[in-house]
Design brief:
single chain, 291 residues, alpha+beta, Jelly Rolls, 8-stranded antiparallel sheet, 6 helices, 14 strands, 18% helix, iron
Length: 291
Amino acid sequence: MAGLTPEQLATFQENGFLVIPDYLSQSEIESALKETDTLLNDFDLDTHPLTQFTTGDGDDTADHVGDDYFLNSGDKIRFFFEPEAFTTEPDPLTGRAALIKPKHVAVNKIGHSLHTLSPPFKAISLTERNASVARSLGFSDPRVLQSMVICKQPSIGGAVPSHRDSEFLYTDPPSAVGWWYALQDATPGNATLGFWKGSHKGRKGGHITRRFGVEEEKISGPADEDLEILNVKAGSLVLIHGNVLHKSEKNTSPRSRFAYTFHVIEGAEGWDYDNRNWLQPPEGGFSKLSQ
């Protein structure tokens, strides 16, 4: 099965991202949305620890902070709430903040092993087509990890500040690439992705060579003229270089912006997955991209 065309590969290498329209069929989109709705409606709120998902503003101590429910979710399907879905003051009886929205419109994301535990998402993820794309990008033994639905709920879907995915899924040498599927239209009006074109190369925007160690550098003042705000139709695939700087704004619109995403790293000998990454391999290792 064919992977990327030479033109697509050149665009990815130049910009650090690539949009492939109509990558999912309409039936695949509908199946993924139906599964998402089922998951959002059926999980047990009474036993949930009400873990909220937050991202920091660039402070190393604030990024991707989570409790055990989050940190042990790499091989499970779990639900993480939007902070703005809760009361600002704790309930005087329970000492905890309470949800002020129905649970199905309060969840920030579902993760992090949909590609192994959800048949509709597994059918989208572990495919020969994706393996062919990975081989086009130079992967020898592509492995899938950190699969999730990002909900971007209407009016409360939280912003994700500028970051590089390789900061959190670091391999030596770096290898992470994101597969990001729009399940609904992602537009400038409902918190679509924004990329600093070319920021994966050299030191544009403050290149980060590794997350853990003396070589790390802070992201510093990328040029606004290099920022491209995408307009992505449902069914499109966005490939995201692990070192490209990108972000999304808060969703202030009345429309949700569901997306499904996972990451691919190199599993071949010679690429070391850092044991200080938040997500560690399950027993048996990360999933092979093509089963």
